[in-house]
Design brief:
Layout lengths: L55 H9 L5 H22 L4 E8 L8 E7 L3 H25 L31
Antiparallel strand pairs: 1-2
Helix pairs in contact: 2-3
Length: 177
């Protein structure tokens, strides 16, 4: 298959590498992948991706969502975006605890405690979430374009009498004339 990979690089530019034989992507962008292994414990399962990290309020919102629908995915991503914006406002450039390790000392070596701090990239996270919302909105617009238009509700019915009775016109008292 001639051409280029078609994936996007981290800078957003299209990848210029050639795809692997019989594949649509280059080796770096998944062309060498054989797919997930059967019975993988790491396989995506419905509701498992973010549910462990939702607040009780977000869990209630998520329980009411019907995932799989583009509109619901947009809502869930917007919840995550609001959370990231709030955390960016609260923590900004503050270093957060990334990991903590307690090391036992061997003979003649004292034990020590290691703390690793990290400044979170909230701007990058917000950019990724915003891009995901834009992609989902585009997908939604494409799906709506392909969907048949819904019938508008009936608001008024008009009846027109086209012909009269055989017996002639009806008088005001209801008798045929």
């Amino acid at each position: 298959m001639a051409g280029t990979c078609g994936a996007r690089t981290r800078s957003g530019a299209p990848c210029k590498r050639a795809p692997m034989d019989g594949k649509r992507r280059c080796k770096l962008h998944g062309g060498a992948s054989t797919g997930p292994k059967k019975g993988s414990r790491n396989a995506a399962k419905p509701g498992s991706l973010y549910s462990a990290y939702l607040t009780p309020e977000e869990s209630k919102i998520a329980a009411a969502l019907t995932l799989g629908s583009v509109d619901e995915e947009i809502r869930l991503t917007r919840i995550r975006l609001m959370r990231a914006l709030k955390l960016e406002q609260e923590r900004a450039d503050t270093a957060e605890l990334d990991s903590e390790v307690e090391r036992d000392g061997a003979e003649n070596v004292t034990a020590h405690h290691e703390r690793h701090l990290k400044v979170r990239d909230y701007a990058g996270l917000i950019d990724r979430l915003t891009a995901r919302i834009a992609m989902l909105e585009k997908t939604r617009a494409e799906l709506m374009k392909d969907a048949a238009p819904a019938d508008s509700p009936v608001t008024k019915i008009e009846i027109e009498v086209v012909s009269a009775r055989k017996n002639g016109p009806v008088s005001d008292d209801g008798a045929a004339g």
